[in-house]
Amino acid sequence: MENSANNNIIALRRLVLISIVLTIFVIGLGAYTRLTHAGLGCPDWPTCYGLLDVPQTSEQIAAAEKAFPERAVEPEKAWNEMIHRYFAGALGLFIVAIAFISIKLRIKHKTSTKTPLLLPLLALAVVIFQAALGMWTVTLMLMPVIVMGHLLGGFTTLCLLFLLYLKLNPELYNKKIEAAISDKAVTINSNAATQIKKTSSYQRFAIVGIVILTMQIALGGWTSSNYAALSCIELPICQGDWQNQLNFKEAFTLLPPPQKSYEFGHLDHHERLTIHVVHRLGAIVTSLYLLWLVIATLKKYPIRQVQISCAVLVLFLVTQVSLGISNIWFKLPLNVAVAHNLVAALLMLSLISLAYQLTQHSRGSCHE
Q1: Residue 179 class from Cβ within 10 Å (0-12 exposed, 13-18 middle, 19+ buried)?
Q2: More confident residue, 359 or 73
Q3: Contact criterion met (CB below 8 Å) for 207 and 355
């Protein structure tokens, strides 16, 4: 019975891992769709001009443009949008399967170590809401707050799945860290061991880092959805007398005045400049905080697994900052802009991994 339970959990882990990879891919597709201005490539939802694929023949295109005269058929943009929908739909099915299997395992196996249930159900709820946001993105004509919410929903789905994967793999960090502490071959003096036991607060610092990074990702989504990425074309902050051009009141109004379409933006230059400047300042604050977190954590936790996690976090942070600078320097090239979204996701996962590691270690230290 126990072997059967373990095999089921292993199968669930693999399904979650596949879903994580698929979610990252969907985030990349979403960024590509947004950056190629294909968000309205299909004027209806969930079909595309009433079809399950894209109008291709001259007859289909003529019928589509007759049904939707306000939107001429652009097959390339329509395919970008539909491919994103196909993969997002597949991801939704994977998450439904994860939730179903988790419920089944919880009911079937009455073991001391219960299969996580809250995380799969939360992921399912988020992905259902994501579908609604996808529909509203089209029906509300790319309203910025909906587009930003859709981006954050994708990141939330990814984070929930990753945390579920960690929960399903307690030995990934627990056993390695406990072995590192107890192993005679690892040199940790008594002072360092005492420090470790007193540093449970560092998990809270990591959680604060997650909050800060989430706010920065939201700012990035707001910058993109308001087409403000190239409002500042000089480094390090902006060109000209930018301080006197800031307009915070209009730049961060979540519910904008009604527009026929929000495609290509509805804000004036000053508002877009304000959004861009805040995003850059946010990048500086986020970078400094995460660097401090890494340095402070390394001082308190002289453990190889923590050192590796910190190194990965710094690698993704440096890469992300470099991509941000490249977006400005090279005028927002498509491949760099998409990579900026993907690395933001990987940076968040590395930070969650570190926070989870610190949480597990704090619990382990309490029992020593």
Answers
A1: exposed
A2: 73
A3: yes
CB neighbour class for 286 (10 Å; exposed up to 12, middle 13-18, buried from 19)? buried
**What one-letter code names the amino acid at 337?**
A
Instruction: Name the one residue in this structure whose structure tokens are 């109004």.
Output: 253
Specify the pTM. Answer: 0.90
Distance CA 64, CA 54 (A): 10
Catalytic site positions: 81
Helix, strand, coil shares of the chain as percentages rounded to 5? 75, 0, 25
Give the pLDDT band of residue 188 (cuts 50, 70, 90).
very low
Q: Which residue has the tokens 């560092």?
A: 202
User: Is residue 123 within 8 Å of residue 99, measured between CB atoms?
Assistant: yes
DSSP letters, 103-143, are HHHHHH---SSPPP-HHHHHHHHHHHHHHHHHHHHHHTTS-
Give the separation between CA 274 and CA 281, rounded to whole angstroms: 11
- Report phi then psi at 231, rounded to 5: -75, -25
Task: Please compute the mean of the pLDDT values over residues 263-285 and round it to a whole number.
Answer: 97
Q: What is the rounded distance in angstroms from the CA atom of residue 195 to the CA atom of residue 343?
A: 33
Give the residue carrying structure tokens 């061991």: 193
How many helices, marked H, and strands, marked E, lie in the chain?
12, 0
- For 118-127, the pLDDT digits (tens) are 999 999 999 9
Check residue 192 and give its pLDDT.
Answer: 47
Which two structure tokens, joined as six digits, stand for 264?
Answer: 């290509």
User: Is 262 in a helix, a strand, or coil?
Assistant: coil
Burial of 55 (0-12, 13-18, 19+ CB in 10 A): buried
